[in-house]
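ok so heres the complex, two chains, lmk if somethin looks off
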Amino acid sequence: MIEVKANMAGSVWKIVVAQGDEVTDGQDLVILESMKMEIPIQTDEDGTVVDIKVQEGDFVNEGDVLATIKES
Amino acid sequence: MFQKVLIANRGEIASRIIRTCKKMNIQTVAIYAEPDEDKPFVQEADESYPLGGAKVHESYLDVEKVLEIVAKSGADAVHPGYGLLSENGDFAKTMEQKGVTFIGPSPEAMAKMGDKVQARKTMQAAGVPVIPGTKDAVATVEDAIEAAHSIGYPVMLKAAAGGGGIGMQVVHSDEELKKAFESNSRRAQMFFGNGTMFLEKRIVRPHHVEMQVLADKFGTTIHLFERECSIQRRHQKVIEEAPSPFISEATRQQMGEAAMKAAKAISYYNAGTVEFLVDDQQQFYFLEMNTRLQVEHPITEQITGVDLVEEQLRIAAGEAIRYKQEDICIDGHAIEVRIYAEDPHTFYPAPGQITALSLPQGESVRHELAVNGHSFVSPFYDPMIAKCITSAATRSEAIHVMCQALQDYSIEGIKTNIPMLKQIVNTEAFQSGNTDTSFIDVHYVKEEAK
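and the predicted structre for the whole thing:
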């Protein structure tokens, strides 16, 4: 199981995958927004989305877990 | 002169405008969104009114709310600062209709420069040099490819209504252009409500040099020399200086003339900035005109002794410019660094709680601050939290003072770009004046930033 973490503090602008989705290396999971900048957060493994830990509009800090992925 | 000025902005620029109003015995009104309640500018104004909301669309960009407070406070003029409503012609027009003075140019002049495609045509007609590119917007990706072939790669793809680097991308091939066209057009549509794109020749290793102009309502236009603003990340300025160490005296004179020509072509009044790209042969090309006060205006004030905000207020109140062109001289050298709440290595935003703030002191150091030692830096707004300006008789002295100032500058609790600024001002490249727009890519060594 891998944890995908926020690389900056900001709010969750969009969640672009759902629990149970198959994802591939480099695919966007969540888009964070902070200080007029949008940063897509990607998985660096192929796998299945086990859990999304945040909701759109949530404020997250750098290092917070956004999603967990089970590697395939 | 005005009795009471409402500042339709936030942060350091609101404080900056309040300072000049106080000097001129003008009452000030601040407006603020919820996360800004504890910020210095709210305390410094004579009156402050909450806008509610946090996001800019719910607060500073909510024209109805701003108008309501203008009426309630009895302000007879509005200063829009930079960004936010400063280049919104409809807002300016509404103000004037209500008998409140908008401290800036006419809505017509703003409109002429606001649309980049139209601005380019207007400048070309006025004899101001422009970058080779498409005269009209390119409607489809096929048109864009055809235009790119006639201009020659690399080309810069730009949003007609863009700003702040949004909707802008360099492309080197048909493949890159195909990808970039759709995504940038979509982005521009989302941000500016206008997805129109155009193309222009990419000037390799350009310097970004801009001319400050002042013009009154009687047709008098002067320029206050240039600012060199080539050190940028994500197409946003990080370090600016005046005068430019790069351009020759002859280029300076020609650019001053071109800037005044640009302003006169649109019957411009108030303070404005004409931005140029200058290539390695000192050929310069019109980029855009910012029809407002600029973030980096303090360096011009430092070398000319002119308070640009005071001149803005006087011009808006219908006074004639108090200076003749020959009164404006360059005296010394000034450098400004922008302090951003961001990771110095990734340049990602880093909002959060400031726990301590300690500023370098000294006669040659000027501060413009949006925060204090216990401010929370909100994720809703621009990451710029402060500017530090140093000035001295020569460039090398101004750099020396800046190096020392950055050494003594301390912000705790959040990440800032101070380590990056320190590394840059200490490089041989910066100190020798070799500062084209590729500077950060080429000379910024992240590992050395600490």
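quick notes: DSSP finds 15 helices and 20 strands in chain B. thats all i got rn
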